[in-house]
């Protein structure tokens, strides 16, 4: 894909609504559009016309320039019969590795170019992650009923997959969206850095949809609850599950979200009977379990809501309980869990 793939529209439109050269309404799966309309009405998320052609024009999936009607990026990616015929790298790649790095001899599974509409791509991505991560159960302390426990909460998997395909920069035609799975974490990698005015620091406040028309279709389909709430949902879900907060990284060429899985070993098994720790200390232990070790800066970032002096007290308390230890010098200092039976002398 290149800039020459788009026609100049008669009025200013978002990139995902630009008409694509050498396309026509015949490339749209009208049966899929009809199903979408019916299901969106059932969800009470759409109240417009039932006619598929009217709907496609309403959602900027079809754009008329002069006497010809073209399909937009939104139309192809949401309802196209073969979107990759026009946009070959509008796909998702999965790389699954047994350890902590993307090394060829640690490969568990590589799946290149998951094709189809964004709905088909997301379905395959969710299926793979759900089938290749750990699921278990525990007992509710109040009712003694079974409670399902996933290594990665489903809302996090869904929201980050949607965020990756909905907000990627499709003008970057040399890169696919990628998901990398490691022993202790998953990385969602979306081509294109953050939009102008959005930074890592203000991302939960200044979220702006790069592809607003795609987002509207996803909203109707039940993949999005409200514009600008996807990453907020991820952060709040991980917090409520007492998991490590997500890490955001903007390289300029891509936006990366990293989520560490739930520690497979219950924290309670490391605590002596009667030992009391606060919520922040529990989060530090969780961080060290899933990452192996962490620098003082990484711990402060996880506890950014807490005063630095309080974080230092939390760490000192865990050391006094014999739960964590250190390695390295002043500039290379790292905290890690103390092995069971390891001397505290």
Q: What is the compact description of this entry?
A:
By secondary structure, the protein is α+β, with helices and mostly antiparallel strands. The chain has 10 helices and 12 strands.
How would you portray this structure in words?
It is a single chain. The chain has 345 residues and is α+β, with helices and mostly antiparallel strands. It has three domains: 83 residues, no CATH class; 169 residues, Heat Shock Protein 90 (2-Layer Sandwich); 71 residues, Arc Repressor Mutant, subunit A (Orthogonal Bundle). It is built from ten helices and twelve strands. A hairpin with a 3-residue loop joins strand 9 and strand 10. Helix 1 packs across helix 2 and helix 5 runs antiparallel to helix 7. The longest helix is centred in the middle third of the chain and has 14 residues. It is elongated and about 75 Å long. The mean pLDDT is 87.
Classify the secondary structure makeup into a structural class: alpha+beta
Task: Domain count, please report it.
Answer: 3
Q: Which CATH class of the largest domain?
A: Alpha Beta
Number of E-state strands: 12
Radius of gyration: 23 Å
Termini separation (Å)?
63 Å
The largest sheet has its strands arranged as 4-3-7-8-10-9
Which band does the percent of strand residues land in? 15-25%
Tally of individual helices: 10
Mean of all residue-level pLDDT scores: 87
Strand/helix succession: HHEEHEEHEEHEEHHEEHHHEE
The biggest sheet, with number of strands, parallel, antiparallel or mixed sense and barrel status, is: 6 strands, mixed
CATH architecture designation of the largest domain: 2-Layer Sandwich
Examine the coordinates and then state which fold CATH places here, giving the name of the CATH topology of the largest domain: Heat Shock Protein 90
Please give the share of residues in helix.
25-40%
Unreliable residue runs: none
